[in-house]
Amino acid sequence: MTIRLVIFVNELLMSDIDWQHLCKEIEAWSLAEGFSAVGISDLDLSQHEAYLNTWLERDFHGSMTYMSRHGSMRSHPERLYPGTISVISLRIDYLSKEPAPATVLQNQRSAYIARYALGRDYHKVLRGKLKKISTMMEEYLAYRGFDDFNARVFTDSAPILEKAIAEKAGLGWIGKNTLLLSKQAGSWFFLGEILTNLPLPHNQSKVVNRCGSCTACMDICPTGAIVAPYQLNAKRCISYLTIEHKDSIPVELRPLLGNRVFGCDDCQLVCPWNRYAQSNQETDFKPRHGFDDAALVDLFAWSEQEFLTKTQGSAIRRTGYEGWLRNLAIALGNAPFDSDIVVALNGRLGTVSALVDEHIHWALQQQSESQQATGLQG
Questions:
Q1: 127 with 49: CB under 8 angstroms?
Q2: Model's pTM, two decimal places?
Q3: Predicted confidence (pLDDT) per residue in 189-203, tens digit
Q4: Is 367 within 8 Å of 337 (Cβ atoms)?
Q5: Which ranges of the chain does DSSP label H, i.e. alpha helix?
Q6: How many Å separate Cα 262 from the centre of its chain?
Q7: Concatenated DSSP letters for 14-54?
């Protein structure tokens, strides 16, 4: 009898909450925390679940075994966090427009690091902001006598289809490069989610896919990783190769990496919708340690302790010291012949691992061929 009474009281309190007004409050709190857009979705991700299963069957995930490890949980948020009936999806811009990314890419002696990784690790930044919003929701409801609130926050940190949820929430559409695109902000943004048991009004409008006949992202991809519209083979993607992949990078792909040592932004740089991208206003996303335009030889000279110190609180840490040197060795090999590069490469031989040595030997061969081609004498 007591349990039934509690359930009845909670249902009565829930019916008295103005959920539409709470949504407006959530939006206001989110904007105050630096987010640029908020939407709410239901849990039906069946269409995207079918896409994910096909992608996995084609082995496009490479060595990212975690993509298949959790089965259907990715497309069923209620299995990830039991009791979930609504997902709040939030967008926050991160682009730093200076120095211009294209300028860094053209300077073959500089290291190109994906713009999202220049500042503090976005996981830490967004998680803190999302928890603040969740706390404000809890306080709002507690003040109105509702104490059955449950929520959990995520940002690229759990088996969940973030882009699919954001699309359903009305924040944009998934483009041909498989990134979420917004008519107002392009694609230079992070996503975060709050899974909750609240019956919030879900977005009912279907987002229009505005990619049209454009194939700019497919045409520009250095390694041809976008094998068809909306189909990405991660095993050819530079972001995967330089971050997630922990072994030797295929020899045929090494020259195509250019000076990209952590991630790749090419498909975003050419996307017409990114003319509307917003510069970030978040201090934590500002570039650190000169990562926005650092010299390859300077980064290659770092000891492991320097790497750990300068990447503390940074997404760059994910590649690990060995992967960092592997990537830098490739970029140094792709650079025009420079005797200083040859000295730097030789100085690293035998100091880290066989994996790094393999890529150094390749880079030295590239430098030798570059010297012969230009007629320079070392």
A1: no
A2: 0.92
A3: 999 999 999 999 999
A4: yes
A5: 2-16, 19-32, 46-57, 66-69, 77-80, 101-106, 122-143, 162-168, 216-220, 238-239, 266-269, 296-300, 304-310, 320-334, 339-348, 354-374
A6: 12
A7: HHHS-HHHHHHHHHHHHHHTT--EEEEE-S--HHHHHHHHH
Is residue 327 classed as helix, strand or coil in its secondary structure?
helix
CA distance linking residue 39 with residue 165, whole number of Å: 9
Structure tokens of 188?
A: 């230079």
For 83-130, write each residue's pLDDT tens digit: 999 999 999 999 877 778 999 999 999 999 999 999 999 999 999 999
Q: Is 226 helix (H, G, I), strand (E, B) or coil?
A: strand
Give 319's contacts (C-beta < 8 A, 6+ positions apart): 242, 243, 262, 327
Q: How far apart are CA 259 and CA 18, in angstroms?
A: 53
Q: Does the active-site annotation cover 156?
A: yes
Structure tokens at 235: 């095993």
Map residue 208 onto helix, strand or coil: coil
Catalytic residue among 42, 148, 156, 357: 156
pLDDT of 64-75, one tens digit each? Answer: 988 888 767 888
Mean pLDDT of 243-248: 97
Q: What would the two tokens of residue 157 be?
A: 């940190």
**What does residue 128 show for φ and ψ, rounded to 5 degrees?**
-65, -40
- Cβ-proximal residues to 9 (8 Å cutoff; 6+ apart), any chain: none
Q: In DSSP terms, which residues pair with 189 in a beta bridge? A: 93
Please answer whether residues 112 and 101 qualify as being in contact, where contact means their C-beta atoms are separated by less than 8 angstroms: yes
Query: In this structure, what token pair is assigned to residue 89?
Result: 């999806």
**206-241, pLDDT tens digit by residue?**
899 999 999 999 999 999 999 999 999 999 999 999
- The pLDDT-based confidence of 376 (bands split at 50, 70, 90) is low
Q: What backbone phi and psi angles, to 5 degrees, belong to 205? A: -90, 140
Residue 205 near residue 251, CB atoms below 8 Å = no
Q: What is the token pair recorded at 7?
A: 């359930």
The tokens describing 185, both together, are: 């902000």
